[in-house]
Amino acid sequence: MKGSWLGVDAGGTKTHAIIIGPHDDVVTEATAGPGNPLAVGDEVALASWRDAITGVMRLAKPVAAHFGVAGSGRPEDHARTSRLIARTGLDCPVTLSDDARIAFRANAEFPGAILVVGTGSIAVAYDARGSERRAGGHGYLLGDEGSAYWIGVEAVRAALRATDGRGPATALTELVPRLLGVGSLHEVVSGTYASGVDRTSLARLAPEVTELGDEVARAITNRAVTELVSALGAALGQREEPDEDLTVVLAGGLLGEGGPVQRLLVQRLRKVMPHARVGPSDAPPSLGAARIARERAVSYD
């Protein structure tokens, strides 16, 4: 197959676009501002998409494109994002999926599963045909257990319980206000309800919490990993494929190479699925988006 294909990873903090050739050779790539409309609004996301697309199309014109946008696995958000993509001006066929699928396809072939753990969390399993089963990903109010945000909130709760005398003493009572740049836990509470301490700020607590040698912090980290293993197991369900045919990709900022959550998670997964290939994501999700564009372009020929 001749031509080139565009992949767009529209994330909450940046948009990355890449154009590849027939053999995954990178023709060109570009980065722009935040691109998730659910996080930054339609107009900001659209402007970022256009900037990234303009950056790559100076050197190549794709025959097909694919966007990966968090939240697009839900039907209502998929429809909304599709309408927004139509405003980019791309004159080639364009398809859309959530960010989990493009991250998986950047690293592995079906069947398999991916666990994405950043500010939020979701587990998605794919059968040999690419059909998916999801668990988690319900957002910070209703889910995202085990995520960086969840860990941050649990750390604040543990610190408050310790201060009240309802929980064990913990170094989190001093760590949490310091990391959030305030003078006391009372200010943390006030800031949270007044929107001065937002989701991103709470999620940024997670790396420090998971590195803390404190018993309470270790318990939070263990509960986070338990939640993530549970979500992955739910997504995989009663799978037909044996473990040795299964690839599990670990993606997202909290599962960075060598981090405490990743180390503990890998240990747990090796016990429950000893023959599966479990490893971190080592390729940009935009590459997976471009590969999907190339695969789906066959039906347009």
Number of strands: 10
Overall domain count? 2
Distance between the amino and carboxyl termini: 10 Å
- pLDDT < 50 stretches: none
* Cα Rg: 20 Å
Largest sheet: 5 strands, mixed
SS-based class: alpha/beta
Q: What general outline do the C-alpha atoms trace?
A: globular
Helix content: 40-55%
Number of helices: 12
CATH superfamily name of the largest domain?
Answer: ATPase, nucleotide binding domain
CATH topology type of the largest domain? Nucleotidyltransferase, domain 5
What does this structure look like?
The protein is α/β, with parallel strands linked by helices and 301 residues long. The chain has two domains: 5-106 and 283-300, Nucleotidyltransferase, domain 5, CATH 3.30.420; 148-280, ATPase, nucleotide binding domain (Nucleotidyltransferase, domain 5, 2-Layer Sandwich). It is built from twelve helices and ten strands. Strands 3-2-1-4-5 form a five-stranded mixed beta sheet, sandwiched between helices. Strands 8-7-6-9-10 form a five-stranded mixed beta sheet, sandwiched between helices. A hairpin with a 4-residue loop joins strand 1 and strand 2. The longest helix is centred in the last third of the chain and has 22 residues, at 215-236. It is globular. It starts with a strand and ends in a 5-residue tail after the last helix.
What characteristics describe this protein?
301 residues, alpha/beta, Nucleotidyltransferase, domain 5, 2 domains, 5-stranded mixed beta sheet, 12 helices, 44% helix, 18% strand, globular
